[in-house]
Amino acid sequence: xxxxxxxxxxxxxxxxxxxxxxxxxxxxxxxxxxxxxxxxxxxxxxxxxxxxxxxxxxxxxxxxxxxxxxxxxxxxxxxxxxxxxxxxxxxxxxxxxxxxxxxxxxxxxxxxxxxxxxxxxxxxxxxxxxxxxxxxxxxxxxxxxxxxxxxxxxxxxxxxxxxxxxxxxxxxxxxxxxxxxxxxxxxxxxxxxxxxxxxxxxxxxxxxxxxxxxxxxxxxxxxxxxxxxxxxxxxxxxxxxxxxxxxxxxxxxxxxxxxxxxxxxxxxxxxxxxxxxxxxxxxxxxxxxxxxxxxxxxxxxxxxxxx
Length: 307
Description:
alpha/beta
């Protein structure tokens, strides 16, 4: 389903993100997680792309498996890094053939441990990739006359590679002007960062929906991992203080992390967020707890039954 049909002005979207597994056992574990979360009828699920496209085949396979064996709408990530135009063209044709409705177009992270020269990439910035996808849409190869819906990333706390926040907003505006239909933000723990980002987008003339990225903390050690995944993340003092109180009790740390994320979600919904995107780390427990507390399943099932 095209993102224009998914996002409705009178109802925020709820979605999940997964990363492709690297072993058969991990694949089956993830598929069980996906099945558990399928019952919550998210508006879509996204599937990440490894640094330098290192998991590109795994991403393709998982996206197609979700598309053909579940009722979920998968949105694959696609990055600029280590790609030539003909490779991206082939990927788009494959997804179009399988009726994948949307793409999340990203700059991407450089591959680790390998010599890499970004100057050799066909797409220097995510805006270039958006332009290419938009041109593919105009070719008529996609079964939907509109082609792929296109999402891009936003960074409420700032992009780690662009400390100049004004220049960073110029880059985001370029992606939207190139044809992006919506924005999904990097994770954040202080909603004030998101609201300020959303307001700065409005001032820059960015009018597409902005979906907030939320990741519930489930372990104290996981904080560093989260910060690494996000390219840096700001942990509010009140969150750290609450986590430190129960640092030696893993179950309590999870409860604190889930409760904090739940408070974020309630506040975002009260402030008219366009959608909430959960970074699941391929686990369902924390996300299911939040969904149950928000009452989302009843609303989504009622909506599904009505259609």
